[in-house]
Amino acid sequence: MKLYGYFRSSAAYRVRIALNLKGLAAEYAPVHLVRGEQRQAGFLAKNPQGLVPVLELDDGSLLTQSLAIIEYLDALQPEPRLIPTDALLAAKVRAIALAIACDIHPLNNLRVLDYLKNELHHGREDVGAWVRHWLLKGGLDSIEHMIESAPFCFGASPTLADVCLIPQIFNARRFAAPLEHLPKIKAVEAACAELPAFRAAHPSQHSDAE
Amino acid sequence: MKLYGYFRSSAAYRVRIALNLKGLAAEYAPVHLVRGEQRQAGFLAKNPQGLVPVLELDDGSLLTQSLAIIEYLDALQPEPRLIPTDALLAAKVRAIALAIACDIHPLNNLRVLDYLKNELHHGREDVGAWVRHWLLKGGLDSIEHMIESAPFCFGASPTLADVCLIPQIFNARRFAAPLEHLPKIKAVEAACAELPAFRAAHPSQHSDAE
Predict the structure, then answer these.
(1) Cross-chain Cβ contact A65/B112 below 8 Å
(2) I need a labelling partner for A18 at 20 to 30 A (CA). Which of A40, A67, A71, B20 fits?
(3) ipTM of the complex
(4) Number of Cβ pairs < 8 A linking chain A and chain B
(5) Do β-strands A2-5 and B27-30 pair in parallel, antiparallel, or remain unpaired?
(6) Ranges in chain A annotated CATH 3.40.30.10
(7) For position A58, what pLDDT does the model report?
(8) In chain A, which residues fall in CATH 1.20.1050.10?
(9) Where does A87-198 sit in CATH, by number?
(10) Mean pLDDT to the nearest integer, B65-69
(11) What span, in angstroms and rounded, lies between the C-alpha atoms of A195 and A21?
(12) Domain B2-80: what homologous superfamily?
């Protein structure tokens, strides 16, 4: 398998964590988002959305959208399970994952911040306030109440919820969003930091890190 | 079951379609988003995110996030299947659903348009251009290339991809986004319009429609 990603993309970061937790190896192919490599024809042929990550399977199949990729990996290699088999618990796990993947991350993605700067002519201060607003309000502030247990979001082992939460916390720290009022989220962060699968997936550990 | 929704919320519209396709009945409880009912304490106790839809089960369990709810319904009542059992096909179906649910819809949600108007002081013209930009570019323009077959996105029966696409097309028409260059999407729209499950879920068919 081959993973097209970018060190700082939190969607690619999610897939790296999932691959590591499952002990699955994938060749890493960096796509430089700031230089616009995702908009070149070669990459658009792999993903018409022009977004990372893309997982290329050995038979040439191309999978896009980080949560769809992780659901696929969970079916391919069920242990350790990232989506619980109990349907109600699975719904709660997926709700946190989607609250991050739908309601925080896309609003703070590079292409959206570029639109705010280039099309709507907002400066650094407005853009920073925008990022922190969506990170916290209706974002991590709500997710704090959706976390059910410890040390991970849903008990003794990490699920898709933790896999999505850690890259979002990385973004929050990058944009200096305050997290002191979110003790459950900080506890999950500490628990995940103990696991090599999460540590090896960190943006700083990748060949394209700057 | 009880579905908390808003007639024009495309996330609630997705869940209505899924319930109808599966022949599952749910009491409808309108939450008036424009009047801010989703930010009242009573509703925040059901969903800390302050978003619709919420599905309340008969045992009092509260499910949030439309795609998590639909995955739950697909496990509860597997026929007709909205997420294929084949893992690779499921990944492609989920990729279209997520391309809509992550990369189009949250950018054009009421709370984001309100932020553009009230916090960043943009007028109707800028907001309309924003909506159409995310609807088409990296949105429906890319999804056109991800649709694999006819009459539905993935063959002879609707999947989660169609369930997400139809409400997004409704939004596109509301904001006068041009769709003439998207023949596959228009064909899916026509096929779904033939099905009572999709017709009965339309925003105009709900008690809170204005």
Answers:
(1) no
(2) A40
(3) 0.97
(4) 132
(5) unpaired
(6) 2-80
(7) 97
(8) 87-198
(9) 1.20.1050.10
(10) 98
(11) 9
(12) Glutaredoxin (3.40.30.10)
